[in-house]
Amino acid sequence: MKLTKNAKIAILLPEKPTNREQFAAEELEKYLKKILNVIIDQNDPAVRFVIGGPNRNVIAKELISGENFAQLLTGEEGMLIKIAGNTVLIAGSEGFEDCQRGTVYGVYEFLERYLGCCFAGISTPNGNVGEIVPEQDVCVLEDSQYVKAGSDRPYRCAIVQYGDCAGNPDHGLNIPFLNWLSKNRYNRILTWCRIYDGWKKLGLIPEIEKRGIRLSVGHHDAVKQWLPFYGNEYFPEAYYQTHPEYYRLNADGTRFCPPTPETPWGQWVFCSRNQDCIEQLSQNLIRWISDNPVVDIIALWPMDGKYEQCCCPKCAPYTKIENSAYFLNEVAARVAKVHPLIKMDMLIYTNMWEHPDGLKLSKSLFCDMSTWAYTGLRTCGKPDGSCLINTHFTDTLMKWKNNGSEVAFYDYYMCVYSGRQRLIPMADEIQAIWKYFKEQGILGAGTQLEAFHLWNHLINFYCFGRSGYDNTLSLEDNLDKIAPMFGEGASYISEIVKIMEDIVDGQATIGKTPDYFMSNIDRDLFYNLYEKALACTTDPRCRNNIRMMRMVFRYSDLEFHDPGHNQKFSSLLEYEDHSGELAYMATNFDSFTHNYTGYGVAFPLSNKDTKNFHPDKWYMFE
Ligand SMILES: [Zn+2]
What is the Å distance from ligand 1's center to 250 Cα? Predict the structure, then answer.
C-alpha cells in the first residue's frame, strides 16, 4: 500500500466506541494530517484505518477472526497492527479490565514503527523541542503484522506532585505531560488528594480517563482527606473535636494534635485498634469511591516524618507496622464488601517496614514498598539490577507478597528533591529490574516523576515506561528508538548516555548519586561529544533537543561546582552564579518555579540576575 500526501482516508471506529477508542482515532487523524496532510473521506477512501479488534469492530473481521485475535493478544494492554491491502487494523486486547489502552498504544506504535515518529521528548508551546513528526510525501506500507501479546508488567506508575510537597497542580504542561505518559506506556498516576481535587477543578480527569490512565489517590494527604481533623468539602465533621480518641495517645496522656504549618506531618496518627475509627474511615472511603469512579486504588498512607505511635493499651503490645497493617487490613476488607475491585495501597517506608509475622492480609491490600527503607535509600546503576534485586528491599517485599498481598515498588528515577534535579544516570539497570519483577510476580513500580522536569531525567523515565511495558527492550534498544529525536547527532547522544551509565555503578545511594557522578567524570569529554552532536545535526528541532540534553548536563556541572551547592535543602536556592548562566537557564527555560510552561526542564534556583551572561549557541533555540 502507498499512503500518499493528500490521500483520502477513512478511520473506522466500532459501532459503539469507548472514549479510549475515540481518543485513539483522534490521535491517529491528528498525526496523519501532520505527516501526510490526509483528507478524511469516510465514503470513498484510498486507505482504511480500522480501530478495534474483531469483537469490537465488525470490519476488523475482514482481516482477522476473533479466534486468531484471541490467540495473538493473550494479555492485557496487548496490541495488534495489521496492514493488508489498503487497510490498516489497529486493535488492543479484548476481554480485559485494561481500558483498551492497547488500542491507544497501537496508534502510537504505528506512527513510530511505520511513519518515523518519535514520542520520547516533551513538547512545549514555547520552543521548537520535543517529539519528532516527519512530514512525508509518500509512505510505502508492505502487508505485515506487528503483535505485542500483552504488557509484561501491569503496574507502570508515575508518582506525581508539583514540588517537594504536593504543590500547585495548575501547570501549563499538564496536557503535554499526560500525552507523554500515555505515549511512553505509563498506565497509572499516583498522587495526593489535593492534586486530584485540583485536577478535578481544572477539568483534567476526563483527559486522564480518555487515555486509559488509572488513578491512585491519597499519598501523605490521605488522613486529612478521609478522616479530616476539622472537616472538609466531602466530610464536614471535625473528627479531631468530635472523636479525639480516633487519634493516637501520646506518652504524656495527650492525643495527637493536628498538623500546623510548622509541624505539617505526624506519620501514623491513628489509634489503630479503635474499631469506631476503622468503621468511620471505611464508610467515608466507601462513599468517596462511589463518587470518584476513575480512582481504583486508594493510597491510604501515613503522613510523612517519623513519630512515635499510639501507646494506648490495645496498640502498645504491637509495633507501629503491625498496628498500621492491622488497621489497613480491616479497612480494605470493609471497603471490599462494597467496592470489590478497589485496592488499598499501603506504603512500606522508612521505619514502617518489616513484615509482621502471623498477619493474614486481605486480597484487597496492595503493598507499595518505597526504596527508601529504615536504612536509607537504595543504591543505583548496576546493569544487572543488583542495587535492588536480592537486597533487603526485595527480600522484605517478598515476605509481604508471600502473605497474600499484591506488591510493587515506589522508586526514584528522578533521585529525590535533595538531588536538585541534577543528572542521575541509572537507566541501565531498568530492564533487569523489570525482568526480575516479572519472574517474581511483582506487579511493577512507580517512579516519582513530575510535569516540569522530564528533560532532566529523560532517559530514565523513557526506559522505565517502555521497558516496563516490553521487558525485551534494553537500554541500547531504547536509545535506538529515541534516535530520531537527535537526527544525525543521535550516535553521539547515545555514546554520552552509555559513558554516563558506565560511571554510575552502585557506588552511592540514590540521594548521593548525582554528586558521585559529577565528582567522577571527565567533563571535557562530554562537552566535546555534545559539540560534535550539534555540529553534525541539520534539523532545527533535533538540534534543539540536543541543546535540552546538554543544558541538563551544563546545569548539573555549574550547580555542582557553585559554592552554593552545599546549602541546606530548600525548594529554591540562591547560588553565587558568578557568570549569571544559572540565572539565565532559570529565567529562560525552567518549568519548575512559576508553573508557566517553560521547556519541561527544572532548575530549582531563585537567582534572577543574569549579570553579563551572553547566551552562546547552546541557548539559541531555532
Ligand atoms: Zn491505640
Answer: 9
